[in-house]
Amino acid sequence: MPRLLAAALICGALACATLLAQSPTNDTTIRTNVHLVLVPVTVTDAKGKFVDGLTAQDFVLYDDGVPQHQIQVDSSDTVLAPIALVVAIQASWISQPALEKIHKIGGMLQPLVSGEKGEAAVLAYDAEVRTIQDFTRDSYKISGAFESIEGRTIKSGKMLDAVMEGVKMLEKTPESYRRMMLVIGESRDRGSKTKLDQAIEAVQRAGITMYPLTYSAQATAWTARPEDDPSLPIDPDYAGGIVEALRLTTRNAADEFAKWTGGRHLSFTRLEGLQEAIQRLSAEVHSQYLLSFQPQETSNKGLHRLIVQVRGHKGAQIRARPDYWP
């Protein structure tokens, strides 16, 4: 470095130090209001195998149709952002056969999904939403939370209200975290005050990727042991049957959450299927690329559309969040 330039830099540094020392608060913290958008991306080939080894030069990202030229890309080997995971579990009485299976997979969540740096919290929902375990890295606490959940009210399952509670919890985590929510229950809501579109917007605004893991209460009952199958009212409930038929014509909340957040909807009937679904989820999360960028100034204060493409990989299947709120 030329001596003149070095001297100038030293003088500049001394001047900055003097100004800081003269500041009334002597506050040296640099404050910024820069918003960073995180976009987890899953890339598979035509056979469903994860595509490894991609770099920033391989990705094309459009924000409202405008290509972003300064994007950061981290792979599973380089990503530093910890995972914050909320698990919301349906605790209806009709869910008891499924809960007997769910009790056995709590220990899989911390090492397979959250990892050593991540945190997980557990909610239960039926006629109300309860926090069973706040954020923790302790696998034993997570397992204990799963094992403690039992079916209560017969058919209530306020999934959407539970999602909103999960959003509140995840919003308290740093924005640099990869926020995820795993909903284990039926694919449609039972009695929430929250509307589906309202819940979808909330998870989008919080940058949460949704992974619904669903079952049919009727199908899991057929695979349950007699002692795990709840005793439901004996008298025929004709009105309830009509309500159930109508409920099946409503929007599939699990599909909608996965579609609009870049997640995946998996389902299970038996314990082996549940364990396989958790392993598939873990493999996907730890094979994702994490794209991040700083949005450019724009007049659009509403929903921004995102498009992610990969160069040189014809037939590649790309799954990412389709939009974000600035």
Question: What key attributes describe this structure?
Answer:
disordered N terminus, alpha/beta, 326 residues, globular, 10 helices, six-stranded mixed β-sheet, 2 domains
Describe this structure in a few short sentences.
The protein is of the alpha/beta class and 326 residues long.
How are the secondary structure elements laid out?
Layout: H1 3-22, E1 37-44, E2 59-63, E3 66-67, E4 72-74, E5 83-90, H2 96-102, H3 106-114, E6 119-125, E7 129-136, H4 139-148, H5 159-171, E8 178-185, H6 196-205, E9 208-214, H7 217-222, H8 238-247, H9 253-261, E10 266-267, H10 271-285, E11 289-293, E12 304-310, E13 317-320, E14 323-324
Parallel strand pairs: 5-6, 5-8, 8-9, 9-10
Antiparallel strand pairs: 1-11, 1-13, 2-3, 2-12, 4-11, 6-7, 12-14
Helix pairs in contact: 3-4, 3-10, 5-6, 6-9
Descriptive account of the structure:
With 326 residues, the chain is α/β, with parallel strands linked by helices. The chain has 2 domains: 40-76 and 289-324, no CATH class; 83-285, 3-Layer(aba) Sandwich (Rossmann fold). It is built from 10 helices and 14 strands. The strands form 3 sheets. The chain has a 6-stranded mixed sheet, with helices on both faces.
- The CATH superfamily name of the largest domain is von Willebrand factor, type A domain
Name of the level-1 CATH class of the largest domain: Alpha Beta
Low-confidence stretches: 1-34, 226-242
- SS class: alpha/beta
Most strands sheet: 6 strands, mixed
Q: Just name the CATH architecture of the largest domain.
A: 3-Layer(aba) Sandwich
Number of domains: 2
User: How much helical structure, as a percent, in the residues?
Assistant: 25-40%
Query: How many strands appear in the DSSP assignment?
Result: 14
